[in-house]
Design brief:
3 copies of one chain form a homotrimer. The first copy, chain A, is of the alpha+beta class and 418 residues long. Chain A has 6 helices and 23 strands. In chain A, the strands form 6 sheets. Chain A has a 4-stranded antiparallel β-sheet with strand order 1-2-3-4, with no helix packed on it. Chains in contact: A-B, A-C, B-C.
């Protein structure tokens, strides 16, 4: 009788997910989206008689629609207000190539093409402000100027999964190793591609939902790193609490059927919205009929969201996502008025939570809330506490107000420090 | 005949260790320690007729003993001078819950309770100064104020193993991946939970002994990250040399039998002591008879500890653990006198090593030692060298003393820099 | 009939590569190189009648040749201008030992020896400026002063692969985990071993070529971290763009046969040269006949190196490797003249690229190039554009020159900031 071999029962390695372009549909489709972002939609048509790429700009003043034949069989694309970047794999005759239609140029030759060295294949590409980046199968990252000059060539810390660019920032998702039992093992790197050349995030894990994979990587319109996993969770990396990713939307909660999904186009922090396409029974939309853009609101996954307290806490911390980023106004993503509104909403959430806690006789919690309030809001809190006959609380709030005033005075008197 | 299948002989993945509460005994025990730390001991009793939690404070002035029924079947606990934090898994009827007895509050409602969302289960929790943190099975980290306000919700970089809090610092041990052949693959993250919100350590590997797992994670009484692995090694992360963990005690050396272990309660840097319970033939103590606390001294694993040189070197570097942390005095963990004593011991170790090297004709080494000495100790070294007729050494020491004096003078003359 | 067992088809873990000394030949050889670096060559002879170590210094003024019997059976060695460091494993009678011939000492006892604790085995060692480091099988890193004092003992973040030292810097390659399908999973740590004790790089992945392993780790002569993998790729970590490794030489391109390799001795940034030994049909050279040193030039793997544009871009970015490191002159690795030459070459590459782009009617690219030029070179570019009748380009260059002049003036007027 054959001796039964002991069968291995432990965790099994997961196949590493392939590199992909965010907001594209699968490359095996003959009609597909190459990219759909805040600037434009690029579609590719690959029929027996003809093969073409069409780019339609949301704002026609950026550029008129582009229609180019796809003779090189490009399957990778990114598009910005400056350029359309395309990439293809090698064929029997030709090497893998990157091609740029630099329509933002003011000179006469608005196109450049670069062959990759023999044996090297494009896996991912992206556009930033004034530059392009491509990642290849042999683990190299190549930076180009938007005008077609070659810049640095670097070793990627692991096999590339996706690239994204925003102004001088390059976000790279890569395989940090092999995951087990259906998990991927990804990390991100955030590089400053400008002359400063710093690592802003140096190989921080990209923490996906249990047994999921990465389906979207990018920057919010305002420049904050973001991703979505195959479980439908969207996360932001605002940098306000270390290199921690904050979940901002569970798109699955908006799906009707279990095989429905949202296909992500972009994230807008100022509007606290996810722009996406609802896909029935699929992970991605067909080209025709033309998909309708759906807008999903941010919602932080706080506990007890069915209670007033939970809702106000969620409102408060959601508004904090933005107010931590006052540079938004400087960068022109947001008017001062809008920021002012957000700040007011924030104070309102706090004041409502304060009233709620006060009514529940939770005076300690009232003080915690008062510490989060803007100093100008404190007199209102004191008045509320007094009227609600929480004399002890009103006294403590008074002390807090005096302490804050004293601190403010001191910091005024102190000479500014470097 | 059946063809023999080739059998895989390579490294095999290790099952990931489960999340645990530091200084607790296993949850399957009906009578167990939920937590034993510098503040209190929390025991849980789960008998057929009754189920209760008892907390006994080491300092009765902090709080009188607490006895509460354990109707929710809490199995996770942490305790601080402010609060008792409890957590339970979901049952058929109820969701997973976190409960806080905030006895440090000055108001009338000293308790709060928070249900986790459907499908989410508590895995670990901890208390810090004014806040609580919980980690769940779906990879979320939730921060609460001690008064029960919900704060940030973040994605953990990997499955949680243990949490620990100290003042504004949150230490998180998590699975960075799967280890092989009996190894775990852990990392730690150290977050500032205050408004600054920085990562102090961002996903640094937690390097355990060969084929061991994590059995304790926490902060020293003075706030320095520490851990113990199942091989009995205790390590500190003082931050004096990068993010490197320094081994400070091999508890196995104090065990008589090979199946004896020490169960860790806490680490005291100022006293250079490990507080633990000696367990015969076990990894953890029973509730009864009441375990006796054992104190083990710090000892760095230097070479040649049976020689005078080795002992003095060990003494010197052990004392450096502390003197690198003069903020201890500011934080009230240590009197100025105590620090002064440590500083004197340090200079004595150096002077004895100096004498030893001098007698051994190792003049170069004498100079290396002199460079570690406080400048005020140099004249003594010069005197020793002169009397021992090491004229050349005495001259070099004189040069060193003059050089240091010159540098000190220069730094006085230089205007202070930002 | 035996039921066919399902065979596992997924990725398979790779055996972790063993620790090694850079620039040594395999330890099983009876005659071998223990180390060959910029200072000296150490050979070991292990014959039936005799066993010895011979050290030959490239510059006899550093030290005359050393010939010592190898009674302890040392197999690890590093050599610097100060000392020869040796290490052996334990035998039946003796523990694992580290031995130092500190010939740079000015006193009479130029040697020290240290036994490792029972059960601990040396795996790697290196010398820095005034210190030595050893790493052991139980995951400890031990620092010694060059005079033989024990300093810190730390936990390594993973099993050691190789160590290298340069001045106060210690570079450690270690196993971050298990790789799959022929890949290793390595990382590096760069520590400041001086009193500052910082981590300069904290566990950054070491990205090797596909399915390769590490064959060399070290610092360039000028102090920049460098490595070579078994695919023959040499990379530098200049720190000019985050913690990214830049490929600087594909040694395989210089090999005639597929089983030929280069054995690395050192990297010289100032000369942009790799010093190595060409090995026919082998990965390492025999002791006899005495190997001849080959010099390979740096070459960055830019695209289209057969075109003039590609060559000039490669020249430019190669020269940038160095000019980003003006501290080289301060450290005495490079004369001011040499740096001046490099700077001139750089400007020449840019000017040639400018001319090329101008002739190709790529005016936008000309502006990109002008932005990389030194301001003094701009008038030349303007003159070129005017003569070539690119009037529009000349105007834009004029604007750029005025803008730069205005900025320079402003920064002069602004008071210096801390």
């Amino acid at each position: 009788l054959p001796v039964s071999t002991p069968v291995y029962q432990g965790p099994l390695p997961t196949t590493q997910q392939k590199a992909f372009q965010p907001s594209s549909t699968p490359t095996h489709l003959s009609h597909r989206f190459m990219v759909w972002n805040f600037v434009a939609i690029a579609r590719s048509y690959n029929d027996t008689e003809d093969s073409a790429i069409e780019v339609e700009f949301h704002d026609a003043s950026v550029h008129h629609a582009i229609h180019v034949p796809n003779t090189l069989n490009h399957h990778l694309a990114d598009v910005s207000a400056e350029a359309l970047l395309l990439g293809c794999e090698s064929s029997e005759q030709f090497p893998s190539k990157v091609q740029c239609l630099h329509f933002g140029s003011w000179d006469g030759t608005k196109e450049w093409l670069c062959d990759l060295p023999q044996g090297e294949e494009l896996r991912a590409l992206c556009l930033g402000g004034g530059w392009a980046a491509v990642a290849s199968n042999i683990g190299l990252l190549r930076i180009f100027s938007i005008g077609g000059l070659q810049r640095q060539v670097m070793r990627l810390p692991g096999p590339v999964v996706a690239l994204a660019g925003h102004r001088q920032h390059l976000l790279i998702a890569y395989h940090r190793g092999v995951g087990f039992d259906g998990e991927q093992n990804l990390a991100v790197l955030l590089l400053d591609v400008s002359d400063k050349g710093r690592s802003l995030i140096d190989g921080s894990p990209l923490p996906l939902s249990v047994k999921s994979y990465l389906v979207w990587l990018g920057f919010s319109l305002e420049g904050c790193p973001a991703y979505m996993d195959s479980a439908g969770q969207v996360c932001l990396l605002p940098g306000s609490i270390g290199n921690m990713w904050l979940p901002i939307c569970d798109t699955r909660q908006h799906c009707k059927g279990s095989s429905d999904h949202y296909w992500l186009i972009g994230v807008q922090e100022v509007l606290q919205q996810i722009r996406c396409v609802s896909c029935k029974g699929s992970r991605f939309p067909p080209i025709l009929p033309r998909p309708i853009v759906t807008v999903l609101p941010f919602q932080l996954p706080l506990c007890q969201l069915s209670t007033e307290k939970g809702q106000l806490e969620e409102q408060y911390w959601r508004s904090r996502l933005l107010s931590d980023r006052t540079k938004l106004a400087n960068d022109g993503y947001c008017s001062d008025e809008h920021l002012e509104n957000i700040s007011q909403q924030q104070q309102e959430s706090l004041m409502k939570l304060f009233a709620l806690s006060c009514r529940a006789e939770r005076e300690f919690r009232c003080i915690e809330l008062a510490q989060l309030m803007a100093p100008v809001a404190l007199p209102l809190a004191i008045k509320y506490a007094s009227r609600a006959r929480h004399r002890h609380l009103a006294e403590r709030l008074g002390e807090l107000a005096r302490e804050l005033a004293r601190q403010a005075e001191e910091s005024l008197e102190r000479p500014p420090q470097a």
